[in-house]
Records
---
Amino acid sequence: MKRVTLKESAYNVKTGKILVAKMLTAQEKYFKIALAGGESLDHEPGQFVMVAVPGVGEAPISVSSSPTIRGYFELVVRDAGKLTHVLHQLEAGDTVGIRGPFGVGFPTQILEGNDLVFVAGGLGIVPLRSLINFVIDNRRDFGKVSILLGCKTPQDMLFGDEVDQWEKRLDVNFNCTVDKADPDWKGNVGLITSLIPGVTLDIERTFAIVVGPPIMYKFVIAELLKKNIPERQIYLSLERHMKCGVGKCGHCQIGDVYCCQDGPVFSYDKIKNNIEAL
Ligand SMILES: Cc1cc2nc3c(=O)[nH]c(=O)nc-3n(C[C@H](O)[C@H](O)[C@H](O)COP(=O)(O)OP(=O)(O)OC[C@H]3O[C@@H](n4cnc5c(N)ncnc54)[C@H](O)[C@@H]3O)c2cc1C
Ligand code: FES
């Protein structure tokens, strides 16, 4: 039997040095992190890392940057509880523990050559941004690209400058909406589902990639199915409470799958009968 060294093991905690830390909204903080010794994270879009603060704990956080960026990676953390609150106190120069990357990400090889519709609600833009920027950096390998974004208010929009750049691109069909507008907002107001009927789709070659809060999935999937997109061409990223991140503790189990190891990305046909999942 091959012996796994600690360095190769999923329990190996690497040191991540925070290069940049800044608030993006009142609740979400951005971190640009480099691994010690210039080691590359080597993640795939849709994967997550376990971020640790010694003496406090560990939490799964999606990698938000594209793997086409080398030398550092980006995370966005919402202040949701004990560990994430401590992460919000950290600044450039501080260090965190990093395990991973873990999980099954978005199936970039299956998506290649096809049309893509990205649907992101709220914090869903954080993992989806990794795939969107990967696709933009390899634009010729993909067909038509549509990006649909939704958030509660204009102030909750993450990565505003980058989103503006996506909107300006001639090779991207972009639309966004907010639940509640302010006087300066010129765009759509309403749920993200209201954007789906306006997208023209070739169902033979369109894949929809949906990430957002649990409540969003049911309604977005219903709209996509109304457009006749086959179930196997709809991908979702699911969030569950996790402890180990590597299929050992059972905390993230949904029916017969472990979200940390079999997911977090699943095709809808594989997960639809799993009543706990949606
Ligand atoms: C695959 C994956 C990717 C994630 N990516 C991100 C990300 O990019 N950015 C980000 O800010 N957060 C992300 N999360 C959620 C993040 O892991 C939790 O917010 C974090 O674990 C909370 O830890 P805490 O110690 O701060 O909160 P705790 O003190 O443990 O809990 C505070 C509250 O948050 C709830 N909570 C804890 N974990 C989760 C969870 N997984 N889902 C929903 N509610 C939870 C608890 O029930 C409690 O009500 C991700 C989760 C998963 C599973
Ligand atoms: S988090 Fe432990 S099995 Fe998935």
---
Amino acid sequence: MVLPTDKKKVLIVGGGPSGLVSLRWVLESQNYTGTIIEQKDDIGGQWHYKGEKQFPVSPRNTSDALDDPQNAENTTTMYDDLSANLPFVLMEFLDFKHKKDAYTFATQEQMHEYLRAYATHFKLWPNIQLNTSVVDVRPEDPLLPDGESGKWIVETHNLATNVFITEIYDAVIIGTGKNSYPYQTPIQDLEKFQGKVMHCKYFKNPKDFKGKNVVCVGLGPSSADLALLLSTEANKVTVCHKFAYGFKLGLLPSNVDELKPIKLVTSDGIITENDEVVPCDVIILCTGYGLKFPFLDPSCGVTVIDNKYVPNLYKMTTFTKRPNLSILNMCYRSPEYILMEIQARFAVSCLDGKTKLPSYEEMEAAVKEEEDEKKKQGIPISLWFQIGEFGVGVWKYFWRIAEEAGILQEFKHGPLLEQMYGTIILRIFGKLALYKQDKVKIVNDNTWEVTLSSRPEFPDSKPEKIIMTANPDFTATVEKVEIVDP
Ligand SMILES: Cc1cc2nc3c(=O)[nH]c(=O)nc-3n(C[C@H](O)[C@H](O)[C@H](O)COP(=O)(O)OP(=O)(O)OC[C@H]3O[C@@H](n4cnc5c(N)ncnc54)[C@H](O)[C@@H]3O)c2cc1C
């Protein structure tokens, strides 16, 4: 492990994309160096998956996660045949691009390869410790007043050697992700169902549902992807959700339907709020994930409300009570690679003192102001980390933090990212059956194209191309052209 003694040490928990981009920028710092501690046998986070359902974890980190009857900690959330739901331009870090024209929607293996190549390119490997769980993090001086950063006592468990080690770190960045602990909202009479009930975390392969009638609960990336995959094997897939809009806006595979939310469950199916009776064999809860940090001692002061919201996070990143602790990638419904990079750069810039953090009181006041605004709008706490919806809302947050981290000028293509994200989200919810055949092409630094796929059996799908051009004033011009002879 390369840790020169003249530099302060940052513990980075987790070797997923959040951890990797953090380490890359910590290593650029004049004042800090860092180590990623990753419990799995490779980096990549969710993208490290070789068909295995389980992986070893420290027993110190296991618990009855969110009343989950199965052990969420050591079950992978990934599944077979997954390809990204966003094109490569939204799934890469600023200074390390995917291979040109290799794919539009990378497969899980290609994303894993990309992340490993990132680690190699930026020489991160010597500062990564695999097969090791962080099992305890606590402040060296728990009596420090709020707003003051002290050192951290960190205990790790080497899963290969079964050795526990305690070390002192000067700062902590948490990149343990938000897709590990199943989150489930109550459904009336669910316990009466005689078929199988499962959270989407435990979905691994559509073949397990051959010929079955499946109900997916919820409208989000998981139900969109599962509906598509299940449609290839299941007899019928019904997506039940509360939104007025939904996939119906567009094209669905012929054996996929969407209905109102479940009113109640019977022994052999569900009844929707519109009193439609849907017999089914399996109910899959695509109801999202909760947040949990089993390795943080209560003396750290980090809490989680309603399994979904971490209070005292300035800019949804910096822990106000101890500003040398950052938690990344808690926000959702946003393009995560951009989120992770901006938050990591913000966290490192704050540690380095390049970005001056306000006082504890000012940071708390800023957090409270945002919380009050959400309360006023009637947004439940469980949605306070949702920074966007259908591609809208996220960018204001992104560009504000990027500016504070001093990296806004590195996002010259920012308006193209915005347009691309909005376009793809509309395609997912408008043309679910088609969007993964869309092709994204980088014409040059300022111009990107999306060729929209079309199929004759879907009369309202036209062969079209969307051309996006970045303008010097941080806007983009978007042109839609019909492809005459596809
Ligand atoms: C099925 C699925 C599909 C997805 N599809 C997309 C997509 O198409 N596009 C997209 O942008 N995003 C997608 N995501 C979101 C995905 O989570 C992000 O792309 C990205 O992986 C988040 O990175 P992360 O580093 O924050 O968290 P993760 O990838 O979850 O990595 C966290 C890492 O922390 C490690 N860890 C946790 N606790 C400890 C501990 N105590 N000690 C040591 N190590 C620990 C874990 O082992 C893991 O390696 C998908 C997620 C899932 C689950």
